[in-house]
Amino acid sequence: MARVKVGVQLQPQHCSVEDLRRAWREADIRGFDTIWTWDHFFPLHGDEHGAHFEGWSLLAAMACDTSRARLGILVTCNAYRNPDLLADMARTIDHISGGRLILGLGSGWFERDFAEYGYEFGTARSRLAKLEEALPRLKERLGKLVPPPMGELPLLIGGGGEKVTLRLVAEHADMWNTGGDPATVSLKNEVLDRWCAEAGRDPASIERTVFIREPETADVGGLLDAGSEHLIFALGAPFDFATLEPVLKLV
Questions:
Q1: Cα 122 from chain centroid?
Q2: What is the residue range of 186's domain?
Q3: What is the CA 37 to chain-centroid distance, rounded?
Q4: Can you give the CATH number for the domain in which 209 is found?
Q5: Contact indicator for 19, 239 with CB cutoff of 8 Å
Q6: Per residue in 8-35, pLDDT tens?
Q7: How many domains does the chain have?
Q8: Are 236 and 244 in contact (CB under 8 A)?
Q9: Residue 214 burial by CB count (10 A; 0-12/13-18/19+): exposed, middle or buried?
């Protein structure tokens, strides 16, 4: 049985940049396979007017401060940057990191980000339609950039929608991220497998990752039995890795 991969999402809220830099350096030293942040403009929890930092800017610093773990945004909102620009940003950070970037992408959901920064929120369906339009354009731009990405630059798509999102995963992604309890994850894996069959895709070619918001109560064994290959645990300020002690045994 292959070793499970373990990642940590460092939430860029209610902290300083130096706090984040210490945390991602520690995660790299501790042996996490992946280190992530998120793509929002305001805190998601606690004081809505609290400190917060932009994810892709942080990712460039993370690429410089770490040397082993793969890096990414869990996940980038498709609406905030046009796909050609995003491809170029990702390729550049891939080079800064020595080929360690994972390009995480989703359709977005946090209405305050859209409203305050002037993006059209639309509906869940319209945001997914824009994501579907963007994916071929992003992949085409990645193929044109000089120099090309240094590493494999896998594409991860986040979300659990069974009619559109999982179809897009089957058609475009190297990795997929979802959340939920083991029963939910197992069901979503089965749906993705069916979409892979329709797309003529080997289901095993898509790495199954799951985001865990509450590490202390997570049913890790159940999630692994449900088909998860890569567990990503949330960690907020003050970034005390002792709270992930059971998880650290997997690293």
A1: 23
A2: 5-248
A3: 8
A4: 3.20.20.30
A5: yes
A6: 999 999 999 999 999 999 999 999 999 9
A7: 1
A8: no
A9: exposed
In the chain, the N- to C-terminal Cα span, in Å, equals 15
CA atoms within 13 A on the CB side of 104: 29
Q: What are the C-alpha distances in Å from 46 to residues 50, 105, 228, 236, 240? A: 8, 25, 30, 11, 17
pLDDT tens sequence across 189-246: 999 999 999 999 999 999 999 999 998 889 999 999 999 999 999 999 999 999 998 8
